[in-house]
Amino acid sequence: MKEPGPTHPITITPHEGTVRVRAGGRVVAESARALVLREATYPPVFYIPREDVAADALRANPQRTHCPYKGEASYFDVAGGPAAAWSYENPFPAVARIRRHLAFYPDRVEAIEA
Q: Over its length of 114 residues, how does the chain's per-residue pLDDT go in tens digits?
């Protein structure tokens, strides 16, 4: 486990406004409670509370990856497509705020509107 710091900063802040995710011709997530995770030089990522994601749009995918800063990621197929969302079910303490949140790949859904 690595801790965020000056050489690899991670910040998590509430998003001002609503985030909407479209996939499979419909809205699969909509939230006014999304978080924005900014990590080092990567683009910002919206993390949406699980309660604000249509459960019937998600199917668990067996893929798993490990991030030394956030923990093990679980993946989900969205609206019949390949792994388009991920979640850290048990994130490391430094990023615990993203627990029970999902993030979406912008290039694997129709749109992420914010």
A: 999 999 999 999 999 999 999 999 999 999 999 999 999 999 999 999 999 999 999 999 999 999 999 999 999 999 878 899 999 999 999 999 999 999 999 999 999 999
Identify the domain containing residue 70 by its residue range.
10-113
Residue 67: CATH number of its domain:
2.170.150.40
Phi, psi of 106 (to 5 degrees): -60, -30
Measure the CA–CA gap between 73 and 85, rounded to whole angstroms: 10
Tell me the two tokens of residue 71. 């923990």
Alpha-carbon distance 67 to 39, whole Å?
12
Domain count, the chain: 1
